[in-house]
Amino acid sequence: MLNLIIVDDDEALLEGLSTAVDWESLGYCVRGTARNGKEALCVLEACPCDVLLTDIRMGQMDGLRLAEEVSKRFADVHVVIMSAYDDFSYAQQAIRLGVDDYLLKPIDITQLHAVMNKLSEMILTQRRRAERYHALNRQVEELSGRAAEEYLRSSGSLNVGLIEYLVKAVVLGNVESVQKNMLRLREHVHDVGDGSILFMVSTINLLLVRLESAGELTQEQTQQLQREGRDALLRGSPDEAMNCISETLERIAAEKAAEAIGVGVPTLRDIAKELSKPGRDPRDELPAPILRTDVLDIKDLKPGMVLTGTVRNVIDFGVFVDIGVHQDGLVHISQVCNKFIKHPSEAVAVGDVVKVVVLDVDEKKHRISLSMKQVPEE
After folding, report:
1. What is the mean pLDDT of residues 176-185?
2. DSSP state of 329
3. How far apart are CA 141 and CA 139, in angstroms?
């Protein structure tokens, strides 16, 4: 039975709402009444309630001000507003204050029943969830270290091999193995029932304790991750819990791998990203050469032709330029510019669009000799 307090400055209506409505059949017990907001706060102090049914227009303290005070001082109390004014601004203020529902006067008894039934169902559901949360919380707080392993063994769900694989993958800095084994761990649980929550909490706790023993986590990190995973699971968010653990393990593994090869983690991730795309040439993303309609193949090239191309590669002895004939031409380092340079990269970079003049063409050997410094001035 939920406790109800009714507030209205209309004494006849207050009396009618208190006695004429069959509150017991709706699951409520009227614990008190008040004629304005100030009286209602005094009643609330003396007689805590679950639901406050209040008018808006009242002397001394109106319903909206009362709702605001209740939200500050009695956070667990739900508020339903009654008003004879079909004013949208009132409804807006009520929503902003977190009021649960809004009834127009004269009160329609069917609508009143519907609103109060919906509210009681919501409150009772929240209470059942809270009770379940606290019961599970007491259980999962005991599932750390050896207790977690014993629970998993007794339930027949323990996969020691999987946990050991995960620990080993983190120690070795194998990010891919961490990802694969975390996916396998997720597959163990499909529904978020009490049993699966206890299984996941136990598995996470055991995994974190093993990582701490291996020196990969500090005691503070272990405890923090245990709390985060437990709270997410108890909120009914197993994916959030597993993502939290997975991201931490991947980060640790990535840091170890990066340290081993002497690069930073961002660089390591870039390397892995590129290696995951076999056969893709990043130079394919460079600007296409500006083609001449009369030069489409190597046989169309003639010494002295001036073309526009895109630098595809820069090496010690020169620059390869794509001029749109399916074969890159070479600009020797001596033909890059008029000044002395130790390396072609001092003058050009991959992706630069440059003008070149054809020096020589060997169709049989598919060689094209180009020059940048001999391009005639316009």
Report:
1. 79
2. E
3. 6
